[in-house]
Amino acid sequence: SDKEENNSSYWYYVSMNMLNVNFDEFNKKNNDTKGWIYVPGTDINYPFVQSKDNKFYLNHSFDKKYNSAGWIYLDYRNNKDLSLNDNSIIYGHGRINKTVFGSLRNTLNTSWQNNIDNHTISISTPYKNYIYQIFSIYTIKSETYYITTKFSKPYFKEKWIKEMKKRNTSTINTEVTTEDKILTLSTCLNDDDIRIVVHAKLIKQQTK
After folding, report:
1. Which of 49, 188, 202, 203 is catalytic?
2. Radius of gyration of the chain from Cα atoms?
3. Would the CA dihedral through 167, 90, 56, 59 be positive or negative?
4. Model pLDDT for residues 48-71, shown as the tens digit of each residue
5. Residue 41 Rama label (left phi>0; alpha psi -120 to 50; beta)
6. Which stretches of 5-57 are DSSP H helices?
7. For a disulfide at 167, which of 59, 138, 181, 204, Cβ 3.0-4.6 Å?
8. Residues 6 or more apart from 76 whose CB is under 8 A from it?
9. Over residues 174-188, mean pLDDT
10. What mean pLDDT, rounded, does the chain reach?
C-alpha cells in the first residue's frame, strides 16, 4: 500500500521511484541492520545500523569488528519505523577518503545544491521505503539541539524547525511544518568539533 505526503509543488519528487533493497543477506551479516540510505551526488549508498547506544558504531564497522572508520548508524533513541519519529538522525564519520559520511561535504557546494536531482534522500527499510526532501544544510559546532528526536508540544517543534531553517546556508528553500517528519544527517567536518548537518522532510512513504 502507498501512503503519500503530497504537494503539487513537489510533484517531481513524489513521482520518483522508491529505493528497494533486499535485506536478507545484510541481516545475516549484521542483525543490527535497519535500512539503506542513498544521497544523490555523494558516495553515500550504504546499509545503516542501530545499536543500543550511539557509541558502538563510532569505532566498529558493519561486520561489528573494531574499525576507527566506524559505520553509518541510526540514533538509538529512534524507532526503526522512521515515520513514527519527529526527527530521525543518522550519523557517520566524515572520512577524508569520502567513505562512510565523508562525501556529505559535497552538499556544502553551490554546484551540488543547484542540481535539483540532489534535493532528495532515499531510504529503504525491511518494512517501508521513504523519500525525503532537503530543507536545510549548514555547519555548526557540536551541540545537542539539532539532534532532538522528539518534541513534547507542537510549539517546541515549530521553534526547532524555525531555527534549523534559519541556519540554512544552502540555496535550497523548502517549506516545513510541525506535521512533517524530519530526517537529519550528521557528520564531522574537521577535527575542530564542527559538524555538517543536513535536514530533510518526509514527502513520500511506501509500505512493503
Report:
1. 188
2. 16
3. negative
4. 999 999 999 999 999 999 999 999
5. left
6. 11-14, 24-29
7. 138
8. 50, 51, 52, 53, 54
9. 97
10. 91
Nine-digit cell string for 36: 539503506
Q: What SS3 state is found at 89?
A: strand
Amino acid symbol at 68: S
What's the average model confidence in pLDDT over 150-174?
97
> Has 133 been annotated as catalytic?
no
Q: Assess contact for 19 and 123: CB atoms under 8 A.
A: yes
Single-letter amino acid code for the residue at 144: T
According to the model, what pLDDT value does residue 190 have?
Answer: 82
- Find cell 531510504 and name the residue: 123
- What region, left, alpha or beta, does residue 54 occupy, with left being phi > 0 and alpha being psi -120 to 50 degrees? alpha
What is the grid cell recorded at 153? 508540544
Start-end of H helices in the chain = 11-14, 24-29, 110-113, 154-167
**In this structure, which amino acid lies at residue 50?**
Q
pTM over 0.85: yes
